Amino acid sequence: MRLRVRLPNPPRVRPGVGAKLTFGFLAVILVAFVLLAANDWRQYRQQQEAAAARRLALAEAARVAIETAFGGITEAARLAATISGQPPDPAAASRSLQALLAARPGYLDAFLLDGSGRLVASAPPNRPPDPEATGPMATGFASAVQVSDLVPGPPDGRPAFRILIPVPPAGTLGLTVDARAIGAALDPLVEGNGCVLAVCDRAGRCIYCTASPELPWEERNWEGYPHIRAALAGGTGMAEGIPGPGGPCDAAALPTDWGWVVAAQSPVQASEGRLRSGAPGLIVLFLALGTIALLGANAMGNRFAAPLARLADHARALGRGQLNERLDIRRKDEFGDLAAALNEMAAQMEERDRRLRARSAELEAIISQSAEGIAIYGAEGELLRLNPAGVRILGRSPERLGLSPAEQIACFRLREASGAPIGPESLPVTAALRGETRLSQELRVETELGEERYIAWSASPLTDIRGRIYGVVSVFRDVTAQHQAQQERDDFISLVSHELKTPITSIKGYAQMLLRRGEEAGASERDLKGLRIINTEVDRMVDLVNQLLDVSRLETQRLQLNLETVDLVALAQEAVERLQTTTDRHTLRLRAPEGPLWVEGDAMRLAQVLGNLITNAIKYSPNGGPVEITLESHEGRGWVSVRDWGVGIAPEDQAHLFRRFYRGSRRAGSTFGGMGLGLYVSREIIQRHRGDIVFHSQLGQGTTFLFWLPLARPEPAESGPSGS
């Protein structure tokens, strides 16, 4: 009975969805706010750049105005010096200087020096000039107009500056000018625009400022301002946010030709644009949009979070194995569709889980009750499971699970079937991890009681849907009894072969003697035919005994090869000539190169292989026909093929053709004889010569056997081996 559970409603608001929606809304609002701020900042920078350009233009205008004012001072002074006459008359010069002071109230004093730098006249007469002003002219005429830095002016120490003007040939005219005198040139430039103009000397002291004409001496040192320092160094100085008469200011400064600096300042408030004026509005807008975002996120969260939470709880329940639970969300939207899909998926998972449990129980029963040993290994070859039959077959229980291949060899005393030690790389499980499939690999184990057993071990890799190997399953069985029976059979064959060889040799000798005497005595054809049959059958018995002896020698590793350099071409010609005499219904055709094919091998054994293959071709071509023997060399190998157009080999026999004593399926009326040892012995001989043998056959169309041997002396590559 299906259990239907109604899950409790989760809380109204899910912080996860609400937070995501809130952050989404706020992100959009923040982007809009950033764009607005960026636009305001762009406008602000444009206004700043325009204001900076205006300050530079104002400073340039102030520099031109001061230069013009200095030009007027220079012309007036030179005119006064000219009126004084030549050579200068001290009295006339004094009157001219007094007239100059009277015409220009901003001039505090004046003096005239001759070409030797001596004082000629001064005004006022009772106030001689400062020696610091006349000292530089003591050596002769000044070469150009010279302007001093800020100095205390007479008679009360007010801020002033001096100008030395060359007036050849009279000498040099010196003037002390009130610093406020240059205000007449600067004040008109700043009327009504809120800007401030200032002039600083070469030491960075303010000579005149339009905002503070009566600036105290202690506040005139402006050398610390960055724009003043930059202009004093000969460049254009710019500064922002420096202290000014009415608050923070932005400033620009330009140098003059005589070393002074002209600076223009404007209040910061005049160039901020909308950045500050619009900031409160932007903040209010951002807060309003943020509030809307929070309210919208909360509403959206209440709309979507509750069903999402129920869907998540149901998915987690499915993950915990509660496959019989179902959702009850009946909405006509995507949530309803998702709930229906989850319910359908849960039903399918429940059915698959039931089938999987049934199959797991079946597999567990098979593994546990199997009469053959079954072992499961992990991705590194570690032993994960061994069924009871496996413990019984191996004769000991593993020390623990998780044994590595090397530890398995030590635990179960594994060795090769021959008794030689075995390495982890030769185990069936290791081969399966490489992607190979091992079938009936024989190993030897030692039980806890010291008994030796022979185990036929098969292993196959376990792969996932992507083809990656994640483990190995192996099946093994005890073949000790079969191995002992095989050993006893081999011993019996060896014994019988040796025991039969002596009487057969005697029979062969007496049969040949009787045949020879009968032919000499002129015996009847009937008697001679019987003697020939006896001789032929004895030859067959000799061949059978020799094959049995070869099998015995191969099984006991006692087959000796007398290696020498052998010409395959000569060997094949001899075999063809010898066997052609045994049949008159078949034509043996040899295709071989003109020169020899030298290989290193046992000539007698290689002739035995050729004889077996040609004899089989003759035997399985009962209707006669050609038998083609082909010899070729290719890539350092000598290739030999024997082809017939006989009955062929049935597909079900081809996989077992090289097994000993295998004679293939027999059709009704078949007269083919033999014990099934010729091909087995031939393959063993070829493989012991470091070669290999293969075949190709189609039922009713004939068979081609092909074997190759390494050449004793490499020859140039020719055409490859041929086959049917």
Can you offer a commentary on this structure?
This protein is of the alpha+beta class and 724 residues long. It folds into four domains: 8-293, Beta-Lactamase; 370-478, Beta-Lactamase (2-Layer Sandwich), CATH 3.30.450.20; 485-554, Helix Hairpins, CATH 1.10.287.130; 561-664 and 672-710, Heat Shock Protein 90, CATH 3.30.565. Helices cover 44% and strands 22% of the residues. The protein has 17 helices and 24 strands. Strands 1, 2, 3, 4, 5 and 6 form a six-stranded antiparallel beta sheet that branches. A hairpin with a 2-residue loop joins strand 21 (625-634) and strand 22 (637-644). Helix 1 packs antiparallel against helix 2 and helix 7 (279-319) packs parallel to helix 8 (334-369). The radius of gyration is 61 Å and the shape is elongated. It starts with 14 loop residues before the first helix and ends in a 14-residue tail after the last strand. Residues 11-15, 137-141 and 714-724 have low confidence and may be disordered.
